[in-house]
Amino acid sequence: MRLSNLFKKACSRVSVKSSRRRARPDTGWLPLAVEVCEQRRLLTGLAPTASWSNAAALTVSFAPDGTSVVGQSSQLFSSLNNVGSTQDWQQTILDAFQTWASNANINFGLIADSGADFGTAGQSQGDSRFGDIRIAAIPMGSDVLAISVPANSAVTGRWTGEILFNSNATFSNLNQVFGVALHEVGHVLGLMDSTDPLSPLNGNLTADASHLPTSADLAVLQQVYGQRGANPAENTVIAEARELKFPAGVYTGATPLVTYGSLDATGVSNFFEVERLAGYKGSVTLQLRTSGLSQLGARISVYDGNGNLLGQSEASGGQNASVTIAAGTAWSELYAQIDAPSGGINSVGTYALVATFDANNTVSDDVIDQAARGQFTYASPTQMQQFFVSGTVPVRSGDSGAPRLIRDGALTYFALNTTPGFARGTDYTAVEQLSAGNTFDTYRVTAPAFGVGQPNLMTVNVSATQQGGLLPQAVVTDSTGKVVPSQIVANGQGTYAIQVSGVVSGRQYFVRVTSSDPAGAFATGGYALHVQFGAPALTPVAIGSGVISTANPVQYLQLDVGETELTQFNLSSGFSAGISGGVVQLSIYDANNNLVYELLETAGGLSTGAPVLLNQGRYTIAVTAVDASGATPAELKFDVSGLEITEPIGPLPINPTLTPPVATNPVIPNSQPLIGTVVVIKPKSFVIPVLPSPSTLPGLLWIQSYQRR
Fold first, then answer.
1. HEC states along 516-562?
2. Which pTM does this prediction carry?
């Protein structure tokens, strides 16, 4: 990994006592302890490569075979089924996730994967179509066993957190699968490669692949995400059981009661109380839900007010368990004990406890599941009832609430609040949309006090939330409306990212989100905004530059890739004075002159293509262009840069060598464009392509790149 991991956590402790104190049954359980506090991350140095905004609620999914990944079909199931049963290798990979999660305030819940293309537009967390972290397998070079994509504001499309196994690799046993997964999950969480041969983050997989995280690995992990179980929870004894309170007003039992909890230390129990609903005579079910929430394997035991055990159920990691108290059973209140008797890495994790009055309940299991996975820990019982009745998502109050719309004279803007879990002023997020009647949104953010050694940088990322939707753009201004200079680091595939340097602590900045195609087909749609302060600079590697002219209609660059990686290319171009309009085309060919990637864009400014998988080896980059008339321009200058977006495990270090243009022109196939869509490649001798004019290319503003399938 390329970046340092120097976070500190700040934590405020709050002890919440029950509003009622009645006599509890004496069962000999442990004495009262304080409640676990919320972990907060305070940026005091360089941020890691990956830093999840809500690591306590991450999800994982296994992409079905056939899912498109950079133009190839995933072979995850067919590949790993050769090593063990589907259940066994999936559990092995989930164990790798839980090995990290059991040592920090992190949870990984398993959910289904729809098979949507990798890189499709969407939010980095909370997309219902697939997990925040997706796992697939595609053929790659023999120098790597797997690669992963840490969080990076410059990545175009929805790639953050993805793990790709090499379907060409041969694994001897599940222990090796575990070792590879453990390495890549560490990278997804933001940890760097380690030179320690005993660390799972070492770049080379050892024969037994059995190394667990070292104390140094865990120290960095806990600096970022906090130490799990640093403070025991309040309701660890029955005398302090947390009550599942009824909503305000008349409650009939038509909606469930929901609360949330976490087992953060081995051997600790949590206790909850449910009162009998007046006049109710039917059965009551208490459900312990961890599916989609965590890999906690836990047990629920239900007692009456006299300490008599009425029922008990246990489930393995990531599975649900429930106890139903039959109608006619005598009780005035029920007490649920949640513990993890099996111990091990699955003895910690988050869960939801749901109580339903079965005869009166009108809420489907799917909706209850949404509430459980939503982890609305901040919601009141009345807010939860509204969610079950109308689907209204509970809104936080105070500092973590929704953006406040402010009208200040002629200026109207949203005042963003700090993302929950981050130190004040270091991270801001919003999900909104532009429409025909709302062509731009303005947001106010305030820069934090930067720590010693922390870069005073502001990173703004705006990403479309639907494929083929909004083409976003952003500009930063100060309080006077003056545009603050920024550097574009990504512009393509529905992603626009800029960096602002020289940010002043405590100063207010305004981020204006618009469309780069305000009069076209991509002027409206949903978007996700992420503003980060103090994150490391995003610096794509310069590959080469050149000039396209009538004398030199095609320019060539040589690219030597030291290790298999997903790489993203930036193409910056501009005509000489007095010329505007036109198209520039970047094509990449492997050592056998096969086209492996193509980026076709309107000339001028910076364009970023979709990531491409480049195996170890030598490649040739060809750049050509036409002006608005379709002729080779008198002069067009261009720059090509690249950004490796993955972290691999394999026998070779990351060391790509980038060299200037080669002197001789290789033999390259001819490319004939199909206007308005992708480029079709025909294996003929190279001829300068006749590129379409910009006015015929609205679709390519979104498509932007072509990868041979």
1. CCCCCCCCCEEEEEEEEECCCCCCCEEEEEEEECCCCCEEEEEEEEC
2. 0.79
